[in-house]
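Worked problem 6 (solution included).
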Amino acid sequence: MDRISNNLMDFAIAARESKKPGVLSFLWSADTHFQTMDNNVWGSSPEMIEEVCRAANLCDVDFMTVAGDLVNGYYDITHQRRDLFILSRLLEGCRAPLMLTMGNHDDNAWYSSGEASRKDYGGAEHVLTKENWYAIAMGSRLGGFVCDQENPFGGWYYKDFPRARIRVIALTTTDLPYIENPDKSLRYYGQWTYGFRQEQLRWLAEKALRFDEEGWGVMTLTHVSYAALALAIPGEKLPYNSDIVMGVIDCFKNKKSGSFEGASPDFPAEISCDFTENRSCEFIASFNGHIHSDLQSEENGILSLSTEDLVGHRSFDLVAIDRNKRQIVCKKYCGGPRPEKDRCITY
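Solution. The predicted structure is:
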């Protein structure tokens, strides 16, 4: 049996004691920025990844998420693929379902931009597409989730947790067109540009938010928030078509219909939705990474939360959602329990 620190043991005992019927619990982490080059002096260490997986197992969570920026994207695409593969092997230590989202460092556009270890434009051949990223990061694990049948490795999928009657929807904000300019630069780099395109938006409106039964709630996982929370980083812009995501969720929450169009010619979208006959309409919250801070915002009744990073703060949250109380409790772990950073949020 592995040796367990008293800090982690006490954290896990408290987590198990707090589990109640109808409560969904999950381990929420983000921003590992894993890389094997330079002895991984900047990214999360393998030992840190193993500790997160151990915590998820000991706390007996319903699932675990790493909400984007799993790898750093500073070096060439060969190293990016290898780093992602090694990290995915480390994450196999988690026995609970593992729900990953793609972050702005994950597509290797930083390297291709000439502003990382490469000093000139690399073009689209140095970008790790979302389809290849999810194939490496998740592979057969995607078989445990409901995916878009037309885009099985697109990066959007969900899982139902019947005991708590909560559907967890994973979306990707690295849903970009990689358009090359004549000088091999790209019109959009995933490092600084985020978005949702037609296929993902249609799946959200027509599949993921549809319920034939009453009594279900919904939460989403993304790397970059599709709400105003994303603007907490100075100079940031909202993901393309984030207004459509917000509009569709607003229609879901209020059992109404709506039509939406994308404003950018490179992110064309025409989405219609009608939730007037939908049997469930409770939206809980969106859980995000990217900001490397514990923040929250509420916009039109849509709650968005972010968490600290694994790479710098070396912290993660144990989250419990109690739908009877309409309450989200986030308990922080950073080398040990950190009750001064715990959050209790009513939605």
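Discussion: DSSP finds seven helices and 15 strands in the chain.
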